[in-house]
Amino acid sequence: MKKTDTADLWWKNAVVYCLDVETFLDWNNDGVGDFAGLAQRIDYLAELGVTCLWLMPFYPTPDRDDGYDITDFYGVDSRLGHHGDLVEVLRMAKDRGMRVIADLVVNHTSDQHPWFKASRSSVTSPYRDFYVWRKDLPTNQPETVFPGQESGVWELDEKTGEYYLHRFYRHQPDLNVENPAVREEIAKIMGFWLELGLSGFRVDAVPFFIEGDPGAVAGDEYGDPHDYLKSLRAFLGRRTGDGILLGEVNLPREEQLTYFGGEAFDELTMQFDFVAMQKFYLSLAREDAAPLAEALASRPRLGQPAQWANFLRNHDELTLDQLSDAERDEVFTAFAPDEDMRVFGRGIIRRLPTMLSGDPRRIRMAYSLLFSMPGTPVLFYGEEIGMGENRDISGREAVRSPMQWTPEPNGGFSNAKPRRLTAPVVDDGYAPRFVNVAEQRHEPGSLLSFIRTLIRTYRNSSEIGWGDFEVLDQPNRAVLAHVVSASEGRMVALHNFGPDPVSLELTIPDTAAGTRLVDLLTTGEVTLSDDGAGRFELGGYGYRWLRVIEPGSRRLY
Ligand code: NOJ
């Protein structure tokens, strides 16, 4: 299929940027970021090249899980503004050609949600079945997601003497998706935000969300959870035409395909590639490209509408749960040597630059890879300037410190007193006086300028998002050489995970005599021999993107 036949599949080469309104920019100086602040920075995001904003939860919340505990699915947290402010952001984004998606967190609610208050009030409440209740504590409990913070997934509710299910914190009771009334509510919630102008959702905790009651008897009326996911996607399609579901599914490869809807590709539009992300860190730690190459090669092949979302870091702990114990230890030793840099026995609470001791060569190589791996890249706010984390903020939330705009106090995030800020600003070698947007913005050699170049080049290289992918054979362990090919053309990317320069001979398959490989991130080119071979130099932790230019090609480079 030609790209032009499916030009409305905008997510195939989008640049997704995740932010929390609360920590982005505080325009009224009360210490909490707000929609008015975000509106001030839409042009910054457009200039960076972002094409799709992902808003973390902005709904009313007691804020015991940073907004992932919602009390009103239709509301806007009053600390951040109101619907009018949000709509203004949507309008401005649309004007710049930028889409907006938001977290859809419907696996659970806050225990302060009116539905749960009603549900727990009595066993005969009309809302009782909005949640999953058990008279007796189930004997074979699934493991909690938050070991050390929760001991199980069932909590006794004193009033009615029954247990409710909570896959996450005990203050986040799971909704009962087996109940048609709950499914109807979820559809209404989606419909509401889509009418306001969202282009889809990042769907929280998909496997838990659709599973229903983990102890339910097979063959009950709920049926196959995937049918439910299909119905949500169909609903989204009917309402929007081209809306997306970007799903959080941290599962092994075999299971991921089922969440795309198998060969039908009628469930999630995109899934984060947790497997490649984890193997990427193993490759970094080992200075060996093989783990990442294998992870990419093991991806199930996707039909045209489906897509992988690549990321190096997100708002949670950097989970390493899909590595073996020995592999996880390797990554811990390399990038989180102290116990307090880790959480839940499986993850790291640091951002990428601190893990890499600030080495600019490695940091740039990592981002060059992010934007050249087949799929759609997702950035977490602050990555573009190399922000560090603030370990004064506990656990996973260490990476959710305020965005650093200027070298001024509070990093230009807010003029409120530091003690009033929603989260403390980084205060070490990565503090705003060292790492900020204002100073990097006009500095051609800055990380921000580099990321902007990567984004521009990615957007000019549609084969990365659309194309087929192949790892090229070559003898150097430290090097990942891959080619992405689409009907528009081909691009070769080289990444060196090791500190030593390398010189490698590569053969690019199926090239006509006289084919050149032209550098896209710098000036330079290599003319291939008639049998498609060429010699390529790469610096320590070096990277190159090269457009395959066959004789007569009109492709820009
Ligand atoms: C996944 C989110 O990414 C995480 O931050 C949150 O705590 C859980 N889901 C529960 O909503």
From TrEMBL:
Q: Where is the Glycosyl hydrolase family 13 catalytic domain?
A: 22-420
Classification lineage: Bacteria, Bacillati, Actinomycetota, Actinomycetes, Micrococcales
Which Gene3D superfamilies does the record associate with it? Glycosidases, Golgi alpha-mannosidase II, Oligo-1,6-glucosidase, Domain 2
Domain of life where this protein originates = Bacteria
UniProt xrefs under PANTHER family: ALPHA-AMYLASE FAMILY MEMBER, MALTOSE ALPHA-D-GLUCOSYLTRANSFERASE
Matching entries from InterPro entries are given as:
GH, GH13_cat_dom, Glyco_hydro_b, O16G_dom_2, SupH-like_C
The family database entries (CDD domains) matched by this protein are listed as: AmyAc_TreS
Query: Which biological process, per GO, is one annotated for this protein?
Result: carbohydrate metabolic process
Please name the Pfam families in this protein's record. Alpha-amylase, SupH-like_C
The protein, known as: Trehalose synthase
The organism encoding this protein is: Mycetocola zhujimingii
